[in-house]
């Protein structure tokens, strides 16, 4: 996979290398390469949306008892592995960008003040991107505020 965040399920290596070895061009238009967004590409797309279309930034706190990661190559300086920032999207939705720079999963508790939301039905979607496992999921749950 290259740094673009897009990968393929089939690169048709034999057809492409045979054409290159034979000195001719092959038509790959009809070949099903199976392009898909990688977990990293998907995560970047979610972050891009939150960062570049936000109309406000909310105060966000991460606890101090979490894991740390090195800030430099000699490991003397460290910083929290978990980072969080909440945004107000231009579409009226709120976004929480939560990242874990550590190599281990970390349980998190998210507290959101709901008093400013009008009563009604909402959909809460959590975008989980596992860059090490190269997978992602988008679980959703209904939430009713009365």
Q: Any descriptors?
A:
146 residues, alpha+beta, 33% strand, two-stranded antiparallel sheet, 3-stranded antiparallel β-sheet, 16% helix, 2 domains
A few lines on this structure:
The protein has 146 residues and is α+β, with helices and mostly antiparallel strands. Helices cover 16% and strands 33% of the residues.
Explain what you see.
- This protein has a three-stranded antiparallel β-sheet.
- The protein is of the alpha+beta class and 146 residues long.
- Strand 4 and strand 5 (78-80) form a beta hairpin.
- The radius of gyration is 21 Å and the shape is extended.
- The protein contains two helices and eleven strands.
- The protein has helices at 13-22, 39-52, and strands spanning 6-7, 36-37, 54-58, 68-70, 78-80, 82-89, 94-100, 120-125, 128-130, 135-137, 140-145.
- The longest helix has 14 residues, at 39-52.
- It folds into two domains: 1-37, no CATH class; 38-145, no CATH class.
């Amino acid at each position: 996979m290259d740094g673009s965040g897009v990968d393929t399920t089939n690169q048709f290596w034999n057809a492409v290398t045979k054409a290159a070895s034979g000195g001719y061009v092959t038509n790959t238009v009809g070949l099903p390469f199976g392009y898909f967004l990688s977990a990293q590409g998907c995560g970047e797309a979610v972050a891009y949306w939150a960062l570049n279309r936000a109309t406000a930034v909310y105060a966000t706190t991460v606890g101090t008892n979490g894991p740390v990661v090195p800030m430099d190559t000699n490991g003397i300086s460290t910083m929290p592995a978990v980072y969080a920032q909440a945004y107000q999207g231009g579409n009226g939705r709120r976004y929480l960008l939560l990242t874990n720079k550590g190599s281990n999963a970390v349980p998190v508790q998210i507290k959101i003040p709901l008093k400013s939301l009008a009563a009604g039905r909402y959909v809460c979607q959590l975008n989980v991107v596992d860059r090490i496992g190269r997978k992602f999921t988008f679980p959703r749950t209904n939430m009713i505020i009365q």
